[in-house]
User: Fold this.
Amino acid sequence: MSVRPQWLTFGGVMLLVLVLLNLPQAASSRLRLVLGTVYLPLFGATRVAGTVVARAEDALTPRGLLLRRNQELEDENRGLHARLLQAEEALEENARLRSLLGWREVSPWRLQAARVIARDTASWWRTVYIDAGTRDGLKPDLPVLAAEGLVGRLGAVGPVSSEVILIGDPKCRVAVVVREVGENGVLTTLSPGVLDHRLVDLTHLARNTALQPGQTVFTSGLGGVFPAGLPVGTVVDWRSVGYGLYTEARVKLHADTSRLREVMVVLP
Assistant:
């Protein structure tokens, strides 16, 4: 193959460059404008051709392959979302356990930590089950606390799990004192006719008790089951009963028993 045409082309290009370099400014600008007008459509056509080729490649991709890739991305997204939720739950559990363990360090009582592992649908607001038992030093009637306050006492105790009878169950009566007035009473059952499972009736109060909303209720230590000083709740309202012979009140528990995850058992 002869290289002479190539040399001629190269020489022509070099001659054109020299001419451009020696042209006056105005003439040079006009010539560049003319050359740009000639070649710009070619560059645009090249870009359009590239776009068309890319779209053609996408159009030729098999539908099954696209569906499979889409499914893989959706599966990966669900997996990442699940791992994120697990990480968030682990962080929340860690914070709750740190709070309970920190409380145990400063508590005047010996405490055994346990996790809530089950609920009975027939007695949802009355009992829960925890993953600690006789092997952990537990026995019936020991008080059970959450970080916010008293939640109940132990019922049946097995080797590795135990029943917790919650405040509001008739089998978990709690002797308490209204701290601000020094009045003793007994927490009995969930207050009837209300939808709030944290409202419990406080009975056996004197008829002239000077109650006020927000007054604090603690265990009194009477009865021998619950030690004195455990936080229980606050007074919501009260009423005169028995033809004015005595007073009953409603107490809102500090601890929300529907959200129990971990508890502390007060050891003897």
Notes: The chain has a mean pLDDT of 80. The first strand starts at residue 111 and ends at 119. The two ends are 106 Å apart (CA to CA).
